[in-house]
Amino acid sequence: MKPSKTYNSKDLHYLKMLARQYPTVQAASTEIINLQAILNLPKGTEHFISDVHGEYEAFLHILNSASGVVREKLDQIFSTSVSKADLNQLATLIYYPQEKLEEIERETEDMREWYRITFHRLIELCRVVSSKYTRSKVRKAMPKEYAYIIDELIHTHYEDDDKRDYYENIISTIIDIDRASDFLIQLCELIKRLAVDHMHLVGDIFDRGPRADIILDSLMDYHSVDIQWGNHDILWMGAASGSRTLVATVLANSLRYNNLEVIETGYGISLRPLSVFANEVYQDCDVSCFAVKLTNEDETRYTEKDKLLAARMHKAITMILFKLEGQKILRNPSFGMDDRLLLDKIDYENKCITIQGVTYPMEDTDFPTVDPADPYTLTEEESAVIDQLTHSFRHSEKLQRHIRFLYSKGSLYKVFNGNLLFHGCIPMTEEGGLIRFSIGCKDLSGKAFLDYADLTARRAYYNKPGSPERQFGMDFLWFLWAGRNSPIFGRDRMTTFERRFIKDESTWTEPKNPYYQYYNDPAVCDMILKDFGLEGRHCHIINGHIPVKSKKGESPIKGGGKLLVIDGGFCKAYQKTTGIAGYTLIYNSACFRLVSHEPFVGRKNAIRENQDIASTSVVFERLESRMKIAGTDVGRQLQEQIDDLMALLWAFRSGEIAEDHKE
């Protein structure tokens, strides 16, 4: 609001409300000075991560190290005064303070001297990483029990003789009263907290890796984060909402990759109903097409009986899934997926199937629960099993807590500080235009369709159970997971059926949306950015979802630098294809920096051997001048507050509003 000689009644009402918080000229002036000072601080560091896929150890290491930001600061400060071995140990200590400290205490004779030296180094590092924030913000980030002490230490100049004894005495007292280990741990956590101001997780927390729940626990404790839903996140959101189809999908995927730990241990969901059903109904069936993928370690750990049960369970839930998917397609003709109705196309006599006019032999047609005359109807036993399992997903307290967090901190896309973040794609036609969807909506494309899709995804969880809106919302979540040209799936079809039953691998292909060709064109990237209200040299699309095949020479930088693919490559199954463990992105006040990572050596090795993730950092775009908070989204909000306070000052001084000097 601009200062004016007169204000209309609406503006005056707002200013009177504002005057309750700032009742005097002095109060309003002080706040203007504070906000104006903040605008001139450097922009905080943003950390972008994508496609972590349940690989919690690698994710937590990337989180703790801030993709190399912590080590970079250590090298800047100490590279000429501290040995590389000591710097490696100090970095590991910051990443894993409790575990590393226990090891150091076992191996170090003079812990008092070690603590004294280490505290000096950590406090110096803390001073550096806190320098771009206001003193107030740093104080709020500090652990309450040590806030005063840390504040004193990082703002005391050691070279000042009058303060040197004061500084040393604080450190000595901490050691003398046996608070050194606790203080050190809290100091390390503060350093990590200040190294990154905000984190973006660009989708796919779930599936493939063992413990997505541990990742979500850490995200819920993180100081500032937003999430762009990936297709695997949508899958679990739908299961938690009560979609039987997506529950079946979660279980089929988890059984396929022998990844049941997150379900049974993480979320406390029992699979006994499925195992009992599978052992009874599929006891005499061929389950060779449903053998579970096992690691070398698992191969020796599981008996043949275990492997047979897993295959039976996998086949049982997959047949339930195919039926439920068929029901969704039949119930929603607007999805345009009638060609994916395949159970009714099977020729049981000749053991073959005709798909799009081509007949293929099938490896397996032994389906005891499928009625060829009515193939998409569940048997009573199947219905009872999937109902029990869905009830367990709906009543897992921890899962529900995590899904509520995904809804509260997440969305299909995010516009933040000039960048557009989304997991999958903006669906495009072969001709290069935007696909227009009419799925519960009318002729929407681009941003308008993503806004509609985001709202519909929320209705699946928050609308009244049993209501038509919630039912369609759950169907729509399945469309987002596997639907033709869905913005987070980005493919023409999901060929799970073909992969299970047809040997001809040409039927397994899942053609990508044309977006993945057109995003190499800077003009297309600019067109998409403009649709989301972004224009300018330093605006980018930041994508996850599709692993970058680095070993084949593919670059994560697309569209002449307008688009970045940061699929994290955390999932071990993808690393043979990509050749690395993917990319993360750092955006600070000076530049954008892509960081490529080698596979993680594991938490135990990292702690014991002081091994960091081997990473290569490349600055691919520098800013003309250091960006200040004034140039960020937060800065624009602060400027609006300043404008409103300036208007309030004018109203005070013109007599439109009276000051309230309380005694």
Automatic annotation (TrEMBL):
Belongs to the FBPase class 3 family. Pathway: Carbohydrate biosynthesis; gluconeogenesis. GO terms for biological process: gluconeogenesis. This is Fructose-1,6-bisphosphatase class 3. The gene is fbp. The keyword Manganese applies. InterPro entries: FBPtase_class3, Metallo-depent_PP-like. It catalyses: beta-D-fructose 1,6-bisphosphate + H2O = beta-D-fructose 6-phosphate + phosphate. Its EC number is 3.1.3.11. Its cofactor is Mn(2+). Keywords: Carbohydrate metabolism, Hydrolase, Manganese. One of its GO terms (molecular function) is fructose 1,6-bisphosphate 1-phosphatase activity.
